[in-house]
Amino acid sequence: MVIHWKQNKIYLFFLIPVILLFYVAVSDIYADDIEKNAANTGFQLLENPVNPRFIAMGSAGSGSSGSGFSYYNPALPFLNGTSYLTAEYGQYRRADLKRAHLEGIVFLKEWFFGISFHTESIEDIFPVNIWGNLPGYDKPFSQQFTIISLNGGFSKWEDFAFAVNLNAMQDRIEDEYAYAYTFSGGVIYIPIPDRLTVGLSLLNYGTSTPMLGSDNKKYLGDGEDIPMNSRLGITWTHSIKEIPYSVALDVVYRNVRDRDKSFTRNIRDRFTVPFGLEVKPLTPLAIRIGKRFNQSTEIINFGLGVNLNLLHVDLSFVIPRLIDDNQIKWLTALTYYLR
């Protein structure tokens, strides 16, 4: 019997979510009791989204064309269909947060390869508790997170691609360091060309080292699993009276235990649902708005993009929900497509 890939590809695609749900259930059953792990002591900035286009659309981008393969889906470059270079920079001055992201992709017939470099830093951190500054800690310190991702993907079809990432990370808190190496994988499927795109990814499978002092000796913790995300994204593209629009929806599962170990609360709080809309009233202009539902620190996201042929300029803003906050987080990016 001859098995045709084109015919059975659909069955394979729907089998992947079943495997994902099985993995989620098994990981909950066999998860160890975590006390001092990476989720509680470091690598927090790993979950800060990238790509101003996706951020403006509520951080929904697992099935959309754009940069950020290390954060959303390793197979994303397939949707761009061409080599590109992108550079991002953003700030959130209220929290002394600065961030930068560089990414490049090269297409070689049926293969594509890429590399990204991402860094974020927070300055002037004071250790505090509910009563104020801790005694003996009157000097501020800083934190910096850095990640380098190598990407490789394959597709000889017009509607399906898969790719993997290898990620190397460092998280520095004051004078202590932790390192981690993780693995990510993802697929893209286009059931309706130029209309419907679906993406599925498993991100950051791996563990960290303990926090190490300046002498590279253990300082804190034993090294635990890095917070791993599973993302399922759907993007619908169409037009109304010749005005193009795109609607993107992601379902994100964060596989990490809460400190109270409450199973019911764990499941509810682990899910976020990014949702966004992009409208192009003029050929070079895109207006975007979105929200990450079940993300308590964000109220709404918005932004715009300008398409200058081979050069794209994108800008996003996030209005956070923090006490007495009066500033917004912004991020901008320049992308050059080598068509």
| Quaternary structure type | single chain
**Sheet of most strands:** 14 strands, antiparallel, barrel
Principal-axis shape: globular
Task: Give helix and strand order, one letter per element, not per position.
Answer: HHHHEEEEEEEEEEEEEHEEEEE
Q: Rg, please?
A: 20 Å
Strand content: over 45%
Number of strands: 18
Secondary-structure content class: mainly beta
> Strands of the biggest beta sheet: in what spatial order?
1-2-3-6-7-8-9-12-13-14-15-16-17-18
Low-confidence stretches: 1-5, 22-40, 258-265
Keywords:
mainly beta; 14-stranded antiparallel β-barrel; two-stranded antiparallel ribbon
Q: How does this structure look, described?
A:
- With 339 residues, the chain is mainly beta.
- The protein is built from 5 helices and 18 strands.
- Strands 1-2-3-6-7-8-9-12-13-14-15-16-17-18 form a 14-stranded antiparallel barrel. Strands 4-5 form a two-stranded antiparallel ribbon.
- It is globular and about 60 Å long.
Please give a quick description of this structure.
It contains five helices and 18 strands.
How do the helices and strands line up, and which of them pair or pack?
Elements: H1 5-30, H2 38-41, H3 52-56, H4 77-80, E1 83-92, E2 97-108, E3 111-125, E4 128-129, E5 132-133, E6 141-154, E7 160-173, E8 176-192, E9 196-208, E10 211-212, E11 218-220, E12 228-240, E13 243-255, H5 263-270, E14 271-282, E15 285-293, E16 298-308, E17 311-320, E18 329-338
Antiparallel strand pairs: 1-2, 1-18, 2-3, 3-6, 4-5, 6-7, 7-8, 8-9, 9-12, 10-11, 12-13, 13-14, 14-15, 15-16, 16-17, 17-18
